[in-house]
């Protein structure tokens, strides 16, 4: 039997270090952008690939159900990564790099919010979504890791997990969702 205790401790230490050094002011700014969108009845589009797609879907669920549950004015999140037939049609007929920007062209209005999640910050389809949103005067948020990549530079707001480790990056991204949900829903303990 292999003893993985040391590797487990090392991984958890990386997690703790990242959590202790999170950009709290940036997170607070993003939370204010989301609350402003909710109060103004604006839509919030969110997208990502792979693990970031599942985090985007988790955000949609937590905000549309969890945070909105007791609110008179609800959040209106839409995860662009969830409509697989639409994504495949766009990927097949136009190109994978446009799977998020095409639906945005049909739905995005001034004052709406687009959140792009990318571990590297360089997923071209997420980059294009953020760039298009900027052109339409939408608010843009990057949730990224590593160096932050292109989306960190393009987005008006960002939460950057500054580590070159995809697993830690994706862990922290999901923790951000849960933390924001917990605080914005007014759960006890904060």
Question: Could you characterize what this model shows?
Answer:
The protein has eight helices and five strands, in the order ααβαβααβαβαβα. α3 (51-67) packs parallel to α8 (166-184). It has a five-stranded parallel beta sheet, with helices on both faces. It is globular and about 55 Å long. It is of the alpha/beta class. The chain starts with a helix and ends in a 6-residue tail after the last helix. The protein has a single domain (7-184), classed as Glucose-6-phosphate isomerase like protein, domain 1 (Rossmann fold, 3-Layer(aba) Sandwich), CATH 3.40.50.
List keywords for this structure.
190 residues, alpha/beta, Rossmann fold, 5-stranded parallel sheet, 8 helices, 5 strands
Offer a concise description of the structure.
With 190 residues, the chain is α/β, with parallel strands linked by helices. 54% of the residues lie in helices and 12% in strands.
Secondary-structure map:
Blueprint: H1 5-20, H2 24-39, E1 44-47, H3 51-67, E2 77-79, H4 84-93, H5 101-107, E3 113-118, H6 124-135, E4 139-144, H7 149-154, E5 157-160, H8 166-184
Parallel strand pairs: 1-2, 1-3, 3-4, 4-5
Helix pairs in contact: 3-8
CATH topology: Rossmann fold
Instruction: Using the alpha-carbon principal axes, give the shape.
Output: globular
CATH architecture: 3-Layer(aba) Sandwich
CA radius of gyration is: 17 Å
Full CATH superfamily name: Glucose-6-phosphate isomerase like protein, domain 1
Q: How many separate helices? A: 8
Instruction: Name the average pLDDT.
Output: 97
Strand order of the largest sheet: 2-1-3-4-5
Distance between the termini: 42 Å
Stretches where pLDDT is under 50 for at least 5 consecutive residues are none
CATH class, named Alpha Beta
How many domains would you count in the coordinates? Answer: 1
